[in-house]
């Protein structure tokens, strides 16, 4: 097997999470909303335990957690679910950044087509937006501001703490896409002020197909979200459909592990980053780091090996490693990265850019050195 370096796309499932899910499939197969028998009641108790585990990781109340199929659904529900309130209150101005995941950009474009006014804030070459520039765009009719915590392509951490602090006493709702940071920047997330937050399990050693939308209570009220799918009254009437008990328990266990092992994991991420940078630097290959390394996720590196096309590089190193040149959700699209383009990078830099992202396990530095040897031959 090749060295897996695409953890920002998806992580493997922790064996303890897998054990929890296997047990759930065996023991808790009742519908958690069937309260007339023990099978349903026991499943419901397990779901609520998992809800507490998610809430504990974030430092919030468990009734603020709504289970979804993942961050994409959570993002859509956060944005589109507020639209009716915006129309009814004549607050039809929304703000986001030009470097968001498509799960935010596309719902914003849908609302723009429906008559909402949208401001897209671009970053500078560091990959970070200017919080004051964004806040200067906020008006009395601004319904929503949505900013990702950490970018999925570059790993650059956005100034969400400053933005959240500024918006916390206003009537503008603040949404954070924490798909990449949840489970990694554990202490930082607990300090943030926000109204809505999206997360997913499969970026933190949980299963694919499960996530959550957090709706914080402010002045005894939660954000006035309306459902975007219709059916039963599950999840406070916001997300219809039978709850996938095993997946939910997998998410809960992944959150519990992330909280328990946060310090150890952070140390591993940072140590691995140093190993990777040392190997790249000592190879003699010309490179540029894309984004400000002082405001970067500890497990992510977006780098351009100048003169080497990223597609050719990925093919040449396929036997050694699994890497990407952008978001997995748009990897079939060979157009330039919208993130790197928004940062104002040169075409040469964008065309040679790859994303390297790693996990909490032991890093095979010898395999990575082979990769650098192949890259050196391509230059």
From TrEMBL:
Q: Give the first-level EC class, as a single word.
A: transferase
Query: So which cofactors does this thing need?
Result: pyridoxal 5'-phosphate
Fetch the Gene3D superfamilies from UniProt.
1.10.260.50, Aspartate Aminotransferase, domain 1, Type I PLP-dependent aspartate aminotransferase-like (Major domain)
Q: What is its EC number?
A: 2.8.1.7
Q: Which Pfam families match?
A: Aminotran_5 (PF00266)
Keyword Ribosomal protein among UniProt keywords? no
Q: Which catalytic reaction applies to this protein?
A: (sulfur carrier)-H + L-cysteine = (sulfur carrier)-SH + L-alanine
Annotated Aminotransferase class V domain ranges read 4-357
The family database entries (InterPro entries) matched by this protein are listed as: Aminotrans_V_dom, Aminotrans_V_PyrdxlP_BS, Cysteine_dSase, PyrdxlP-dep_Trfase, PyrdxlP-dep_Trfase_major, PyrdxlP-dep_Trfase_small
Q: Which UniProt keywords apply?
A: Iron, Iron-sulfur, Metal-binding, Pyridoxal phosphate, Transferase
> Could you tell me one molecular function GO term of this UniProt entry?
cysteine desulfurase activity
Q: Which protein family is named in the record?
A: Belongs to the class-V pyridoxal-phosphate-dependent aminotransferase family. NifS/IscS subfamily.
Q: Which PANTHER family match?
A: CYSTEINE DESULFURASE (PTHR11601:SF34), CYSTEINE DESULFURYLASE FAMILY MEMBER (PTHR11601)
Protein name per Swiss-Prot or TrEMBL = cysteine desulfurase
């Amino acid at each position: 097997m090749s060295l897996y370096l695409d953890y920002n796309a998806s992580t493997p499932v922790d064996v303890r999470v897998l054990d929890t899910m296997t047990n759930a499939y065996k023991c808790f197969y009742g519908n958690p909303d069937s309260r007339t028998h023990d099978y349903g009641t026991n499943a419901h108790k397990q779901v609520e335990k998992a809800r507490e585990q998610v809430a504990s990781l974030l430092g919030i109340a468990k009734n603020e957690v709504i289970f979804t199929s993942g961050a994409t659904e959570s993002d859509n529900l956060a944005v589109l679910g507020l639209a009716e309130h915006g129309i009814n209150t004549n607050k039809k101005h929304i703000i986001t950044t030009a470097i968001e995941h498509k799960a935010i950009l596309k719902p914003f474009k849908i609302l723009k087509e429906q008559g909402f006014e949208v401001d897209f804030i671009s970053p500078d070459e560091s990959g970070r937006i200017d919080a004051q520039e964004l806040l200067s765009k906020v008006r009395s009719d601004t319904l929503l501001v949505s900013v990702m915590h950490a970018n999925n392509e570059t790993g650059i951490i956005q100034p969400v703490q400053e933005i959240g602090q500024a918006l916390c006493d206003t009537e503008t709702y603040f949404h954070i896409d924490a798909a990449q940071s949840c489970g990694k920047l554990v202490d930082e997330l607990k300090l943030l002020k926000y109204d809505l937050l999206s997360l997913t399990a499969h970026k933190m050693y949980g299963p694919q197909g499960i996530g959550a939308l957090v709706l914080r209570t402010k002045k005894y009220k939660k954000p006035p979200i309306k459902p975007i799918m219709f059916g039963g009254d599950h999840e406070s009437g916001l997300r219809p459909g039978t709850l996938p008990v095993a997946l939910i328990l997998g998410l809960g266990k992944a959150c519990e592990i992330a909280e328990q092992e946060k310090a150890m994991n952070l140390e591993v991420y940072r140590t691995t980053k140093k190993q990777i940078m040392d190997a790249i630097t000592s190879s003699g290959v010309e490179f540029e780091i894309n984004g400000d390394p002082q405001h970067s996720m500890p497990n992510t590196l977006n780098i351009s090996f100048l003169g080497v096309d990223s597609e050719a590089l990925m093919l040449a190193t396929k036997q050694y490693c699994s890497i990407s040149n952008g978001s997995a959700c748009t990897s079939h699209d060979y157009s330039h990265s919208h993130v790197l383009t928004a940062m104002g990078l040169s075409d040469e830099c964008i065309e040679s850019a790859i994303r390297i992202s790693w996990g909490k396990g032991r890093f095979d530095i010898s395999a990575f050195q082979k990769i650098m040897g192949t890259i050196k031959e391509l230059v």
